[in-house]
Amino acid sequence: MNKNSLIRKISFGAATGIGFVLIVGLMIGCKSDGVNTNTTSSTGPIFSQVSAASSGIDFVNEIIESPERSMGNYENFFSGAGVAVGDINNDGLADIFFTSNDASNRLYLNKGGMQFEDITAAAGLSSNKWSGGCSMVDVNNDGYLDIYVNNDGPTNDEELLSNDLFINNGNLSFSNKARELGVADSGRSVQSVFFDADNDGDLDLFVNNYAFINDNETLSDWYDRIETMNPVKSRKMHLRFYKNNGGKFVDQSKEVGVDRVAFGLGLAARDFNDDGFLDVYVANDFFLPDYFFINDGKGKFTEQSKALLGHTAYFAMGMDAADVNNDLLLDMAVVDMSPSDHFRNKLLMASMDVKKFQFLKETMDFQDQYMVNAFQMGVGYGGYSEVGNLMGVSQTEWSWAVLLADFDNDGYKDYYVTNGMYRDTKN
Fold first, then answer.
1. CA nearest 218: which of 287, 129, 134, 168?
2. Which of 3, 67, 6 is nearest to 389 (CA)?
């Protein structure tokens, strides 16, 4: 990358050891104004590795593959799992919760000194579901972090697909209250976010559900099937919004305007237009355009992606939002699956089918979408300009998640991407 690029590229080599490897940031001195005057050099280390043997974190996300159970019959077979970090016992130390696909989720209690203890079974968090995204949040406002887990997987079992809400009992144990509180969503959800949508002082819930499509279906056939599907079955392929009503949650997806079919992967709730109300951005996989739900301040949302964004990513995956250039305006990063190598870029490129393009643009009136990472720079008045290529971050291979954070304490947000595919079917 050119030395004058706005974001410098730093690559991490393959980690060795057993299971999860903990990466710890080096302590770097900062001035009180938030801009660092003592940073590491461009070639110096920013993180140091803590081995599984040292930390006690030996988690491995297990996936059991077979001819009857693979990416061939479940699209998201290798989409990975999730992790949440938070202080579950209020001792001032960050604990770690991992989700797993074909094994139990795991909770590691931070004992200090970068030492962790697996307390999964004792905490009542052992599981047999295919889990993905997860969140640590104080749902009931009792001062203790609870854990919400999104479940999906290669199954049609309603119980295995239902999401879990583990309420913190305050004694290093948890109780699953998802059904009791109304949030046992079974729509093959990937990620969720708790936020106060109506500024009433309690947390509401937005769930990113993921639809499915048969490989031999045309887009028009797919839409016809979705529109004529049994409403109960169709509902599981739509985004869901659960309003907090006195501690219990009520599905108000239609009432608030977010009841849309989705291939939801990335998700963020932020005040994107700086009006005092939290909005929601949904990054959609495949051909569905991203949804940009703007909060009207009265408990409802309107989808305004075409009005506020020039174009978006195509196979949108993970996303994050932060003020990258310190102009007090939120910016957004959305990753796709675009390699920098020309041959591989053409190999992975989405279909050039003219009829498909016309259907998406003319019949469906979709937003312009391009198969590269999108970096939406906030320009004021709620609008954005896509500058991923100028930022040097438009092509980062088969990318899954992006994180905007100041890793080197220099006062500027950096851009971290996780990428790769366990089974690359493109050959």
1. 287
2. 6
Residue 32 lies in a domain: no
The residue among 272, 214, 212, 204 whose CA lies nearest residue 240 is 204
Q: Can you say how many angstroms the Cα of residue 377 is from the centroid of all Cα atoms in its chain?
A: 20
Q: How far apart are CA 73 and CA 328, in angstroms?
A: 46
Q: Cα–Cα distance between 396 and 415 in angstroms, integer?
A: 11
Only one residue has tokens 């001819």, namely: 67
> Model-level pTM?
0.86
The number of domains in the chain is 1
Residue with the two structure tokens 């940009």:
292
Among residues 391, 384, 349, 345, the alpha carbon closest in space to that of 367 is found at 384
Q: Is residue 33 part of a domain?
A: no
Supply the range of the domain harboring residue 353: 62-419
Phi-psi region for residue 92, left (φ > 0), alpha (ψ -120 to 50) or beta? left
User: What digits encode the pLDDT tens for the residues 340-399?
Assistant: 777 777 766 665 567 777 888 888 888 888 888 999 999 988 889 999 889 898 888 888
